[in-house]
Design brief:
Elements lengths: L6 E4 L4 H18 L19 E6 L5 E5 L2 E5 L4 E4 L12 E4 L5 E5 L2 E5 L4 E4 L10 E6 L5 E5 L2 E5 L4 E4 L5 E6 L5 E5 L3 E6 L2 E7 L8 E6 L6 E5 L2 E6 L1
Antiparallel strand pairs: 1-20, 2-3, 3-4, 4-5, 6-7, 7-8, 8-9, 10-11, 11-12, 12-13, 14-15, 15-16, 16-17, 18-19, 19-20
């Protein structure tokens, strides 16, 4: 991978699995002295559906759980469930986001739904129904809500979702440790959104065969990890 000021390390396609395996082995000895109690929550305990797709935590320390049967909110004791009958566009919740105004953002195969604690409102970023499949939702440090929908990037302006980087095919999103948004534009580069401007951090224009599907920053290292058709790569400052 060609880049500007970051060093890239390449790993084979299944390196992610072996990396996690190695980490588990390293943690095995100290973990042996610790005991954890796992509690399994199912529909019998009040969960909307046992097939969980996503989860997040809000500022009230409630657990927000996306399932195939709707949204479940767990306060530590009880579940409150919401589905299509409550205003969701569909029961399958794919992704969950949570903004600074305490709104819950839900991504579905048929648009983005915002829940303000009282009611649901659905937004359809694209005029084409088949292009409203939500892949990811991120809320940055500035309070902006971003949506990755059918390989296009949208920004919420307070009333509607506006498409960003219209000429690009977006393949992955993430937030860095400071809360800034990073986006991969296929065959162009990895960009950071800072102070209302896009800046290219990594040049991918000379390598059109590279396809990045996911990326994230290491919690402790701060390095950017990308995963795609060439396996796992690490870019270090």
């Amino acid at each position: 991978m060609k880049h500007d000021d970051r060093q890239s390390k390449h790993y084979p396609k299944y390196a992610g699995f072996y990396l996690w395996l190695a980490m588990l082995c390293l943690l095995a000895f100290p973990a042996a002295a610790q005991k954890y109690n796992f509690i399994n929550f199912t529909v019998e305990n009040g969960l909307a559906q046992s097939q969980v797709t996503s989860f997040a935590q809000n500022s009230d320390n409630e657990l927000l759980v996306g399932t195939y049967g709707g949204l479940s909110i767990f306060d530590g004791s009880n579940f409150v469930n919401y589905n299509k009958s409550n205003g969701l566009p569909q029961n399958l919740i794919k992704v969950i986001g949570y903004d600074q105004q305490q709104n819950i953002w839900l991504g579905t195969n048929n648009g983005i739904c915002r829940y303000d604690g009282k009611q649901f409102k659905t937004y359809y970023p694209s005029a084409k129904a088949e292009e409203n499949v939500v892949q990811q939702i991120e809320c940055d440090a500035e309070g902006t809500v971003w949506a990755f929908v059918s390989n296009a990037l949208y920004r919420f302006d307070g009333k509607k979702f506006i498409e960003e980087r219209k000429t690009d095919t977006i393949t992955a999103l993430t937030l860095d440790p400071s809360g800034k948004l990073w986006a991969v534009a296929y065959a162009k580069g990895i960009y950071i959104f800072n102070k209302k401007q896009w800046k290219r951090e990594v040049d991918l224009s000379t390598d059109p065969t590279l396809y990045i599907e996911k990326m994230d920053f290491g919690t402790y290292s701060g390095s950017l990890y990308t995963f795609g058709n060439r396996g796992l790569e690490v870019m270090e400052s």
